[in-house]
From TrEMBL:
Cell division recorded as keyword: no
Domain Carboxymuconolactone decarboxylase-like: 16-96
High-level lineage: Bacteria, Bacillati, Actinomycetota, Actinomycetes, Kitasatosporales
InterPro entries given in the database record: AhpD-like, AhpD_core, CMD-like
Keyword terms: Oxidoreductase, Peroxidase
Cross-referenced SUPFAM superfamilies: AhpD-like
Organism: Streptomyces sparsogenes DSM 40356
Descriptive protein name: Alkylhydroperoxidase like protein
Pfam families, per the entry: CMD
Length: 157
């Protein structure tokens, strides 16, 4: 499968995405644990069906030491015993923040409160921005049919 648009070769896309992707880099420095960030990015991408992002975040997480068991169970995290309560709160938050069309209200009060039990205000801010950012990146990739499978960890760093 070939992409409809090469973001790196197109001057308009390149100019805009330079600023957009700097937000993603800033999130890497946020106080939200790196493992949680990768799990959330992966779950958002699974929900949206973004193969390119699933490829990227699975490989980045594995390269950072995440286990295959945990990565394989992200899609069924509710039934899995391998995630901490904090990670479960972040995954629930990611799902409600991604399925806004289904939930209509976005992240509900109960899910927000559960996340707030595990994350401070800076971490919650990072979680909100990460979920929003991943939804936008997923759409950029899905609309242009970016292919998956060839990503190498660290490729865009």
């Amino acid at each position: 499968m070939d992409a409809r648009l090469n973001y790196f070769a197109n001057p308009t896309a390149g100019k805009a995405l330079k600023y957009f992707m700097s937000a993603g880099k800033a999130l890497k420095e946020a106080p939200l644990p790196a493992a949680t960030q990768e799990l959330v990015a992966l779950r958002v991408s699974q929900i949206n069906g973004c193969a390119a992002c699933i490829d990227m975040h699975t490989k980045e997480a594995a390269a950072a030491g995440e286990t295959a068991v945990r990565l394989n169970l992200v899609a069924a995290w509710r039934e899995a015993t391998v995630f901490t309560e904090a990670e479960r709160a972040a995954l629930a938050f990611a799902e409600e923040g991604t399925r806004v069309a289904d939930a209509a209200t976005g992240v509900g009060d109960e899910v927000w409160a559960h996340a707030a039990e595990h994350y401070d205000e800076d971490q919650l801010a990072a979680l909100v921005i990460l979920v929003s950012f991943m939804n936008a990146v997923n759409r950029l990739n899905i609309i242009t049919r970016q292919p998956a499978g060839d990503y190498r960890p660290g490729q865009f760093h």
